[in-house]
Design goal:
A hairpin with a 3-residue loop joins strand 5 and strand 6. The protein has a domain of about 140 residues: Nucleoside Triphosphate Pyrophosphohydrolase (Alpha-Beta Complex), CATH 3.90.79. The protein has four helices and eight strands, in the order H-E-E-E-E-H-E-E-E-H-H-E. Helix content is about 15%, strand content about 30%. The chain is globular, with a radius of gyration of 38 Å. Strands 1, 2, 3, 4, 5, 6, 7 and 8 form an eight-stranded mixed β-sheet that branches. The protein is α+β, with helices and mostly antiparallel strands. This is Nudix hydrolase domain-containing protein.
Length: about 230
């Protein structure tokens, strides 16, 4: 039919309206071309997550971990003399070692005694610009075997022996550890002791020997540039 006839057939007073095909909104039931993103809201890409516990770019803490043991025999306590200084049996935790495993190993190496660990006695934490950050765990232990004789592979321990608790201050001269040990002997409950030695210089002052006992320890002056760690 000719075009002019089609228009006339639309009825009086009007023309037949052409039906407009509804176009589809871009991205609606359509496959986007390569490289295009459809029907999506742009979201900023988050920065890669930092290491767990690390905030504002500050480095993670890296304290030196120490482990040791308290062994009592009646009114006496087990001490070792290492490089001229007396202390509880203790040492550094080795890689891949659990804290309690390290405490048993150090006790055996420094004293020759095999111990069964009981409870956590105390934690001593201290830091100083000179020596860094240290975190030391001490457990109570019971003798179950061995012979009292140092087996230290590094040969740093010269002697191990039980000394009267009442003479403790005659032997241990590192005050942060002495404070923790004396407190535990009084209270017999676990505690966490924290010392900032840069702000508490009195904790590092040399202490005069006090009291007179039957056992005379072989004390040497501690070097000013090294602490009993």
């Amino acid at each position: 039919m000719p075009e002019d006839v089609k228009v006339a057939a639309g009825g009086a007073g009007g023309q037949r309206r052409r039906r407009r095909r509804r176009g589809r909104t871009p991205g609606q039931n359509s496959t986007p071309a390569p490289g295009q993103v459809s029907n999506a809201t742009s979201v900023p890409i988050p920065a890669p997550p930092s290491k767990r516990g690390q905030k504002r770019g500050r480095p993670l803490a890296d304290p030196r971990i120490g482990v040791g043991c308290i062994v009592l025999r009646g009114d006496e306590i087990l001490l070792v003399r290492e490089r001229g200084r007396w202390s509880l049996p203790k040492g550094g935790l080795e890689a891949g070692e659990l804290v309690q495993e390290g405490a048993r190993r150090e006790t055996y190496e420094e004293t020759g005694l095999v111990v069964e660990l009981r409870d956590l006695a105390f934690i001593v934490e201290f830091q100083a610009e000179t020596w860094g950050h240290h975190l030391q765990f001490f457990y109570t232990g019971r003798e179950v075997g061995g012979t009292l004789a140092p087996r230290d592979p590094d040969r740093d321990v010269q002697e191990a022996r039980f000394v009267p608790i009442r003479q403790l201050r005659e032997f241990i001269r590192f005050r942060p550890r002495l404070v923790a040990l004396e407190t535990w002997l009084r209270e017999r409950r676990p505690r966490h002791f924290v010392f900032n030695l840069d702000k508490e210089p009195a904790m590092l002052r040399k202490r005069r020997r006090v009291g007179v006992g039957a056992v005379q320890p072989d004390l040497q002056d501690e070097p000013t540039d090294e602490v009993d760690l």
